[in-house]
Batch of 4 targets.
Target 1
Amino acid sequence: MKDLVKKLSESFGPSGSEDQIRQIIRSEVEQYADEVRVDSMGSLICRVAPKAAAPGAAAKRIMVDAHMDEIGIVVSYIDDKGFLRFSPVGGLNPHVLLGQRVVFGNGVVGVFGTEKLDDIKDLKFDKMFIDIGARDRAEAQAKVRVGDAAVMLASFADMGCRVSGKAMDDRIACAVVIEAMRRSRPKLHEVYYVFAVQEELGLRGARTAAYGINPDVGIAVDVTLWGDTPEHAPFNVSLGGGAAIKAKDSSLIAHPAVKNLMIDTAEKNGIPYQLEVLERGGTDAGAIALTREGVPSGTISIPCRYVHTPAEMVDMGDVDACVRLLAAMVEELASPAGGGIL
Amino acid sequence: MLLAKLSEAGGISGQEAEVRQLIRSEITPYVDEIKIDPIGNLIALKRGRKGAEGKRVMLAAHMDEVGLMVVGINSDGLLHLAASGGVDPRVLVSKLVYVGADHRPGVIGSKPIHLLKAADMDRSTDMDSLYVDIGAKNKEDAEKLVKLGDQIIFATKCEPLGEGFLKGKAMDDRVGCYAIIEALRKQHDFDLYGAFTVQEEVGLRGAGVAAYQVKPDLALVLEGTTAHDVTETPEHGRSTVPGQGPAIVYRDSSWVGDPRIVDRLIETAETAGVPYQIKRTVTGGTDAGRIGPTESGVPVAVVSMPCRYIHSPVSVICADDLNNYVKLAGLFLDSLDERGLPV
């Protein structure tokens, strides 16, 4: 599992440029899916057919989603000396970038520099630039183009029961979904495992994917914040506390039937869990829930420290709890009782 | 000149009737179908040579402009106003305006400098302290001439400026409307839809509704965008530069342009030797942000016309840019015939 997490964490896939990460995930999941397609926005959609057809009625559709994009930067201008100006892709704090390196899809590496600042508090993106070691504009333009996106260059660290790296948001969830896909085969109903694009720009890929799938129930898997480091704001989620079952965030109030099925399923299977109310932030479940006439949806969250930095940290015990909970949820929903929802 | 007529027509968000009628009468002779949908979008169809087997391509531009609206009439017959769309109150003082559908002249009043206190000089104007004087003696008189909710547009004549520039109001997005009117003249293999949308300036409201009806295989948004290339703006902060050609937008805050369409636009411009620029900033939203997420997703990108002093009573554009903007849109459509859709 750690090998998979390392591979996904270190892969390239800023929002809007998910080709590389999609290819990597595709090669991991193709063998478990009955059909794999890429929708017009670039989301990877894997359909898993049930072992047996649903008696009488047509099979219902269960959508499981993790987004494969990550935050990063995009080049907005190349000056005559070869320095790149950039804009953030997704929620980035300029202070996090100081001293960091980025890598483009073609392997070009850059470092961040800043204009002269009297007070570091004045640091803003438009006072920063990226130096790719080019001596002039022509040399820079031979390496990157305006509109090219880059991600943080950060290697994966295995710390034992915990691991750290870039893009745990949301590659750790991609790993959870891939692993759950390996472990479960639906008895009834179809399961659509979606690796969505452009979540960090406003839940965009999940919206169109959900329209295309037209699911009867939706589960997003994403990271959430933490409340257990020194002097941190109170938050009911700790690293090592198990899978977080979302009650609410700014994109979604979890459908009570989905949330309660998550709780009951965790209890029944002895899976450690914690309940989560996130004041700011959303997940793809918010977009899935509002598709067409509405889709009962919920989110399984993986507690993650230092979110949206190159050193996000998760607990492998939590990851395992999320895999078990997701696999068990799919089993419940795909059973004749349909988890009481289908 | 058609662009001048478009620029001078009134149409704040939700009150697009005048500009819509103008567009309708222009294109009626050469399009196959015109539909005005329930929220006021004008959707025109120029049928393709391949009939029902062909693809559907949609060009979109918004008809509405930023402006003001009457929200109150005081006892002296002066009109209170509110912004419709993003308008900086500091640009409004002492401007000539037209009120209502019949373009009734008005003046945004200001306090004479003789009466200003020292502290007033340092204070910027807010919307609540502004009013429009339409020459009414009192409230009763004013009520005969205007009613609450009436639009207030800038009384700006569109005309040439200096060497190869044009000035006028509402270039955002009448330039886009102009480009689509021109593009609809030509028949292609595919069905070409021109969507002239409503209410973009108050939250991209019309475009998604239009896209839902058209269900295009590919869409291109034609916009007007900022071009603050003046004085002390650093090079990288100059979103676009007038005179350097139409701006191809790879992403903005509302949408990531489909890279296949962006690449095709660049290839088209380079092959034909049409000057173009890549927009240097990613701020602002366009109708692409509503067209893109329609149903299962619509591949869409944006080409924008550089407009100085956008969202003010008067914008300045470069005439060469306008010609190249219209040309690039046309050549892009030709490339879809020659090379097929890139998506």
Target 2
Amino acid sequence: MSRWKNLIVLSFIGVYVSFLSWGVMAHALKVGTCGNTLSYFVVWDMFCGWTAWDARTHIIAEDAKGNYFEMREPWGEFHPFGHVARIHYDNTNHLLPKHIDNVMKHTIHEGIDRVYVVEEVWPKQYNLPPNLYAHYFERPNDKLSYFHLRAICAEDGTPLTINPDWHTQQRLNSVYDNPRLQRQSKQATAMYSTLFTPTSQSSGQSLNSSYSTGLSTN
Amino acid sequence: MNLPATQDQPKTQLGRFFFAKEVPFGVALVRMLLPLAAGTPMFMRFPRVRELYTADGSTVQMFELFGHGAVLPVLPPNLAVPLYSLLLICLLMAVVGFRTRLSLGIASTLYIYFNFLDGVGTMTKYSVIASHLLVLLTVSNCGAVWSVDAFLKKRAMGGANVTLPTFAVWPARLIQLLFAHIYFGAAITKIQTDSFFSGEQMRYWMLSNWNYENPVGEVMAMWAPMLLVSAYMAVVWEMMFPFLVWRPIGRLVVLGLGATFHFMTWLTLGLYIFPAICISGYFAFASERDVIIVRQFFRKLNIQRFFSWPVVAGKQVLARMPQAVPAAVVWSCLAAFCAIVGTEAELRMDIYGANTAEGGYRLKPMDATVARAMISKEQRVREQDKFFNFEIGTRTVGELLANRRSEFQFGELMLAQANLNPPHEDMWLECLLVDEENRTIEQFGQFVTRDMLRANFSYKFGNKLVPGNYQMVLKSANQEIYRRKFALNGTPEPTANNNTLLTN
């Protein structure tokens, strides 16, 4: 091998092994992987937690006359890894607005007023086949799905109202179901007209104004 | 097969590890298998190219999932579809080893690009592993043997019985190091995952049905001790992999366990492509010596004649290829032909139904009562759905009940275990021991806070009961959740002092 070729090969080996090692170290120490797309290529978190509840996403469109439509792709859902449609794998909801927009763009329909995004959840033990369920639990499989309104969107998929997902909502409910916490939150500092902005004191402006855009707080 | 002499090997151990020269049989095997494994889902996605990977569909880039917005250009269908077709033909040409490096280079680039465009339905950890392997194959000399390129080279040299070429083994070593990092990293993930070592996480995964069918997994999910043992075995194997895989005997053990592990993920989790890609990559661990041993073994069995027909057929086809036509021209014509055919085929598929009489499909109407029920105020979770199960037995493994029983003897300690489905609120659970006529004999209760996954109740069968049929009843929020029947057999223990209550 020529000297240059040797140098390129050695550099490649060095960079590649360092990249792999950085991924494992960063993942172990939980440093530098958040918000880093390339970390997905060297962090091996194939088993990062599975919930006790199975979930599906339903999208329902409502037109001006109060008619409802199932917003499933009329040309057939795409199942990436089995028999579950692609939209159900969108646990971060990045696909959702684009999916709604795509279905709307490629279908014939009346004017749509609202698009509701509903989460369906049920405990995973009801996924067992009937014979196994009967053998193990010794009672009928009376599966009940729970529906939770996740978001309301415009026709083009723009979110108008967003609610916490079902799991977060359940956790919030369980934490808030505590009279002491409720009392403390009610006694906490009020949100309006109580915040002081030092920079506005000298200019004589109102207490809550700020030079920054967006929220008018410090 | 003429093997070359191997005198000019590096002198240091590290030098030999990366730069020892061998005939690249291992990476050639990976080249023949990996594009098939990684390409299978890509072939199946071809009818959906427009929807998944073009500006006329709904792409979600990996960069968006990490908060960086759409970094990559999303191409219109008239560009993306030919490129996707080119990806598919390049994967096939890599399998047969025709213009191998060029095919693999294009396939790697396009494979990573299209995976990046669909972070929800295409990009997974198996596509990450496949991307690594494709890039490493591109820089290797995997096309030097068992390939069309090798055949054409031999023909160009007049068909003489030439010595097989040797190259430094570093590309194979990098693939091996990749697997060592994958398994070590996966072990760290499992160590950091709550409730992995109690089996709960595995159980819920096996019941998820997010992959393909997994009937074995559903049975195993209800067998808690097995899950626990499997969890420990998997982590120990993953941690040991980097330390044993370059040892002569250790290599066979950890690779054998690895193949078993991936086979079990197919059976229990319904994973198809992931194991196929990993097993394809395992062939990078095959050395020149391994291939010779296997070859000699097959020669002794004299069964190679049954498998030689694809080679013979391939050679006959290649022999008809005029020598005057450069391989690059043939490759380019094939690539162009596939891109054009792919584009035409995709247009004819007409996924959005734009060429139908109406010019598109209509949305499916929905029953208003059902729709309103789904979007109205949410239901409270039934008390019974806060529980996974309630079992009685006598023994636990890793805190989970290991033996379900319906018969007990006097003197035994019964364990009644309720497993809960998180998230749940703080609860007060009751466990009642009742007789056949539903008369309460004993009552126990305990708080179960929101962080707890299970509640245990124990009961020692002393001399308070008589032989017969009983039931353990689990209650929450004053509602009956589960009822487990059991029979108590034998004779009560003799009472030492009639004034002393021996049980509970």
Target 3
Amino acid sequence: MPLAVSARRCVLVALAALLLGVWTVPSSAAETAAASGASAAATATPTIPPPQPPTGLLYADVPNDAGGAVSLTWETSPDDSAGRGLVDGYFLERALSPGGPWEVVDSVDAGVRAHTDVTVRRNETYFYRVAAFGPGGTTRAGAAAGPAIGRSSWFNLSRVSVLVFLLAFFLLVLYYMYMAQTGRKPFVRRLAGIDAIEEAIGRATEMGRPVLYVPGIQDIDEIQTVAGLVILESVAKMTARYDTPLRVPVSYPIPFTIAQEMVRSGHVDAGRPDAYDPDSVQFVSPEQFAYVAAITGIMLRERPAAHLFFGSFYGESLMLSETGFATGAIQIAATANVHQLPFFVVACDYTLIGEEMFAASAYLSGEARLVGGLKGADMLKLAIVAVVIVGCVLETLGIHTLTVWMQTQ
Amino acid sequence: MKREIPLFLTAVIGAIVLAGFFVPHQFISVPADYFQRCAVIVVAFGYALGGANLVRVNLEGIARRHPDWPYKVVLLVGMLVTLVFGLFVDRAKFQDPGTVSIWIYDNIYVPMNSTMFALLAFFIASAAFRAFRVRTAEAALLAVSALIVMIGRVPLGDAIMAGVFDHPGLPDWVRHLRLEPLQQWIMDWPQNAAKRAILIGAAMGVMATGLRVILGIERSYLGGSD
């Protein structure tokens, strides 16, 4: 086909298509006609414009932190309204200088007008801008805001109430410790569970069976484990005095080494260092059910006459105490994990609830300073009860000052 | 000095970590974070001591032919196989799918763990049998409360109750006696009040123990006599 004829045909097809509004070129006419047709179609379809940019970007250093966050607020795009569908969200862009280069640090949904950038470095200067995006594309970002600097605070003001109570607690405890040391030792009512420890060890001695001591399944960073290990020393002292074997399976390595020291120390204090058996304390496994399997194995094979559970326990509490119950051993448990207390109450002969476990070392040692500390803790509890009652009254009256002051971050 | 240096370190590090709760400034927060990270290294050394104890105690048991010595063999072989494959075969990829370590985890560890966990159902049944025996007024209260909460919290229980209480012939006030809202009331009020009381008391105990450790009043955890 001659070139001139072909070109004329293309022009005719294009004109016909324009008139008909149809851009399908049925013939094998030149690709150029189709391409030009497609571009014309894009022009003809109603386009969605990019959303208008958000405005009023403000920045502020987040207070009471270590300087790692900057909060941003802005006015949403005028196109950001429900049902219009012009805005899908906003890009938050950050740069080290007002001229860029800009990096997108995060994005938020449409309608959101605040965000906290928690990826900033302390004392670094940043500039921010916000761009809206939607089906029509991304709008040009608004004006940059800055310089924003994340500065670290010297004091977390939202924790003033905690500090006040902590200082009051420390002062009360120290005061009553001092009083106890000067001879005014406070009266402490006896706890049946603690008194029963010696009874349980005595029973094991009579039966010629060992005592099993379980210091919980948590590591040393759990304060209940610390309390459990402190009580272990007194238990070890008693077993050494009665010449009764002691078994202490431990779940984590650091409590294991401390437990060894406690048992050895108990034997030394009882004047029986020769009776100390290094294998009485055994590292088992930090795995919950492996630990359970090992302890229940000891219970069923060696048949200890007394089981003492002092520490932090979870789902294994019932498995341990029920297996122990089946063996007929006398069982004493102590934990501050409230969800496990019902299981221990059901399956054990004595259960020390929450704070009673932390008080046990003072009871067992009888040391004046430790006993004085108990009175200090009781006095703060009294103060907390008073604050709770006052808070209830104020809230009922519609006064929220105390509640707000007590809230922490 | 054997006790003074650990006591000094405990007091200083404890005070810094405690101060870190109130002072976010890097002057305090950076060393506080650093000390907490150091704990990981100490724990790693602790595992070496724990592992050595585990091997020694079980080897002794095997050598002396304790009644349960075959279990000790299984334990040591299992430990050795897992360690060898993890350290020398799978190495850094021990958590990747297809490795022997993951096979051991999926096919040995997980089923054994699940089996132990499943036993809990039987322990709960036997413990509940004893707990709900009505002997005193308190035990009766416990049993009734437990019954309401247990039936009210399962969908089937609520569905059964709905069939009874939603009968069109019943007055409106009867509908409010369904177990679902009743059990929620028990959980929200009496249960929560008791739980919070225990938690406040326990928190006091935690603070008192922490203070005693930081001040060196509670020093028995260091071992040895004064």
Target 4
Amino acid sequence: MPDFGYTINKQRVIDLDKNDGQTVRRVRQLEPSINICIGCGTCTATCSANIFTEFNLRQLMLLVTRGETANLRKDIEKCMLCGKCMLACPRGVNTRNVLLAISRIFTENE
Amino acid sequence: MKKIAIIGAGVAGLEAGHVLARKGHNVILIEQKNTTGGNVRNWDRLFPNQREASEVYQPLIQQAVNDKLRILTDTVVMSAKYEKNTHRLTLSNGETLNVDAVLISSGFRVFDAHRKEEYGYGIYHDVITSADLEKIMAVNQKVRTTKGKEPKRVAFVHCVGSRDEKVGNTYCSKVCCVTAVKQAIEIKQLYPDAEVFCLYMDLRMYDRYFEDLYREAQEKYGVTFIRGRLSEVAESFDDRLQIKTEDTLRGKPLKFNVDMLVLMTGMEPTSLAELLATEFNIHRGDDGFFTPEDEHVNFNISRREGVFLAGTCKGPKNIAETIADARSAAETIINYLK
């Protein structure tokens, strides 16, 4: 059979039915304030870690709530836990604890 | 003829006073400040059509004069007692009033931007508030930086003192979004070459014409809208203002320098609200604004018999809403006194 070079692209849609719902449920349990984020970006704007790295806390929290957790373990390592984001958040999300909760979930699963 | 005390001679108080006086009632306006007309007096032009604010507040002030209403300025109610269908009010000028009904129209105060210290108000001279900009426009019809130059780049910051847990105001002040769009257009009209930015979390263009104004700001005036909340302001190397936000639609932190920063300050209950709530025994919400007994139908009635509510003392409102609410309150009082 000759190889015509055709491939089937993997779908790139966010599939909420297949995504990681378990992590988001556990994060919500450990730090319910993640639910009230409105994605304004104040946390990311004030973050000291993201000037030189690709760390984006607003996006990270959004990815968690969508169950897009494939790169999560590597991403959270960039946070220095300084807590500036928590001081700046206009909604009162305990952003620092969201990070700690995610980290705790990885420990639990080990 | 019944006697009615109106607390607060802003838009709501003046309009309600006029309606009640026309019905032959004896109206006394009690105003904390030394002038009537309320906050709108500090405004130059109104959204959505840039109409001069004085066209609205001058007739309101004039009709109170024409109606020969008794107006007590620099006066506040110190205490209130209610017995036998009469409200006995003790005023700061030592006078005691016995009235049949009380209308509370104590309005709002503009959020004090000093409380949002990271935005640099009172620290950097070219950080001003939306209310400051109106005053500057009203007096000079032009805008200059502290160095006397035309601003080449101006940014407007939405939601200052609104939707912000950190200052204790979790509600939306409703009128700031459209005011920012109006003021952004005004800067572009004055200085067509200036670059103008609006930093927003959500744009709440809720009323008729607002969406058109937003489109016009983009289409005709080239105002740039960035979805991100300002995190902090600092002095830049070239002696301008450096602002930091996240461009949330791009997903990257963003910084740029501006000549002038305008903070869209929201509405707060007046400093009198607490005293009035205690003295008249009426409800206040967690946000500090007065709460009527029924939010949908009887929205001018308070918990205390014979005490009525109108205008922005019940939460953020624009001028047309305030006037409509004042007329509704007057109508409610007229029926109550029959």
